[in-house]
Structures are given as C-alpha cells and as structure tokens.
Design a protein that fits this description.
The complex is a heterodimer.
Chain A (H helix, E strand, L loop, with lengths): L3 E3 L4 E4 L4 E7 L6 E7 L6 E6 L4 E3 L2 E6 L4 E6 L8 E8 L7 E3 L3 E6 L1
Parallel strand pairs in A: 2-11
Antiparallel strand pairs in A: 1-3, 3-8, 4-5, 4-9, 6-7, 7-8, 9-10, 9-11
Chain B lengths: L3 E4 L2 E4 L5 E7 L6 E7 L6 E7 L5 E2 L8 E7 L2 E6 L8 E7 L10 E2 L3 E5 L1
Parallel strand pairs in B: 2-11
Antiparallel strand pairs in B: 1-3, 3-8, 4-5, 4-9, 5-6, 7-8, 9-10, 9-11
The chains are: A mainly beta, B mainly beta.
C-alpha cells in the first residue's frame, strides 16, 4: 500500500463546476499536510497547507481529518487555468521532515 | 522569497557519462535539501535527503554510488548521476524549506530533465 494515495483521475469537469479531490495517508505520525499543483513538465508549486480546522483560500478549501487520515481539496467555480495535476503531500515529520507525494489527481477543466 | 534555483534545466548526454545537477537556495539557508525523481505520469519519488556538512541519507532502493550528493554549503546541494544510462532518463527535482517560513511548505527547483541516449 502506498503511503499517500489519491485517485489519479482524470477529472473532466466543465468551467464553473465544483470538484473535490480526496487523499488518504497511512502513517499516523505524519505531521503536516499540503496540496501542491503541478503543471505538465513543470515543478510542483504549493497550493495550500492543510490544517485540522480546515482552511480556505479563495475558491479552494482544504480539510484534514486526522482520525480517518484523510485529506480533501475542494475547488469551486472551476477555471480553465485550474487544469493541472493536484498532488497530496504529507510531511512524515521526525528529524528530517521528508515530504511524501501522492501520485496526483489530474484535473481537466473544459470550456 | 524562498526561491530555489536548479541548473541545468535540460541535459542530453551519452550513455556512460556523468551529469551534475545543482540546486541553490537563493534567499535563505537550507541545512537540508531533498532530491526527487519523477518518471512520466508518475509522482515524485524521494531519492535522498541532502544534509549540509554531512553524508546524504538515501531512500531504500536508491544507489548511493550511482547518485552522488554533495551539500558543501548552506545554499548549495549537487546531485551527480554517475555513468548515466538510458534508464536514468527522468525529471530530477530538488526542494528545500526556509525554516523562517515553515508554513509556506517546501520550495522546489524548476527541475532538470535528463535524457540519456
């Protein structure tokens, strides 16, 4: 079983749609959580950190359920420019703070 | 802030040659940097953790004699792919974190696309 699991998609949605991505992690000692966005053939870029209380940044809402070891990302009013791969990322914690990446979920927003 | 510069962005080399990739933190000091590899349509796989002034820590299955890491200063880590072969062709990415901006997560270099022919 992978340490961080995501539905690879693709998610094909029309502009304006709301789309939700889910992610589960297996290491209960994981300390911090992020969503990154990766465009084709580019490096990942931080979209947002994820907190237990839930957090929102414009059209993006992230939530964390530590008991279920589950992370989500909700995108409202999808734009064409949201098309990318969304990576669920978990920090293992400990002395080295390693980031472990999910396989990513591909989102394609259609006009 | 928190910029990581990676160079070169693209390398094409012959089988058997060694390739050196540099990763620099431009506006912060990074005692730890991470090296990842990404094959097409796959996620980033952590290869090793680079520690300033000490030996790198390699993930299981990564050959330390094949992927040589040097972290000689607080702003520079290098990855050398020794005697590269076609199966080493991949997208290599480094990352680092500015501890002063911990909530901003990790910053990634722009990646190096290595093609071994």
């Amino acid at each position: 079983r992978k340490e961080v699991e995501q539905d690879p998609g693709p998610f094909n949605v029309p502009e304006g749609a709301t789309v939700a991505f889910n992610c589960t992690y297996s290491n209960s000692a994981s300390q911090s959580f992020f969503w990154y966005r990766q465009d084709c053939r580019k490096e990942p870029k931080l979209l947002m950190s994820v907190y237990s209380s839930g957090n929102e940044d414009g059209r993006f809402t992230a939530q964390l359920n530590r008991a279920s070891q589950y992370i989500s990302l909700l995108i409202r009013d999808s734009k064409l420019s949201d098309s990318a791969t969304y990576l669920c990322v978990v920090n293992r914690g400990g002395a080295t703070n390693k980031l472990i990446f999910g396989t990513g979920t591909l989102l394609a927003v259609q006009p | 802030g928190a910029v990581v510069s990676q160079h070169p962005s693209r390398v094409i080399c012959k089988s058997g040659t060694s390739v050196k990739i540099e990763c620099r933190s431009l506006d912060f000091q990074a005692t730890t940097m991470f090296w990842y590899r990404q094959f097409p349509k796959q996620s980033l796989m952590l290869m090793a953790t680079s520690n300033e002034g000490s030996k790198a820590t390699y993930e299981q299955g990564v050959e330390k004699d094949k992927f040589l890491i040097n972290h000689a200063s607080l702003t520079l880590s290098t990855l050398t792919v020794a005697s590269a072969h076609p199966e080493d062709s991949s997208f290599y990415i480094c990352s680092a974190r500015d501890r002063a901006r911990a909530n901003y997560g990790y910053t990634f270099g722009s990646g190096t696309r290595l093609t071994v022919v």
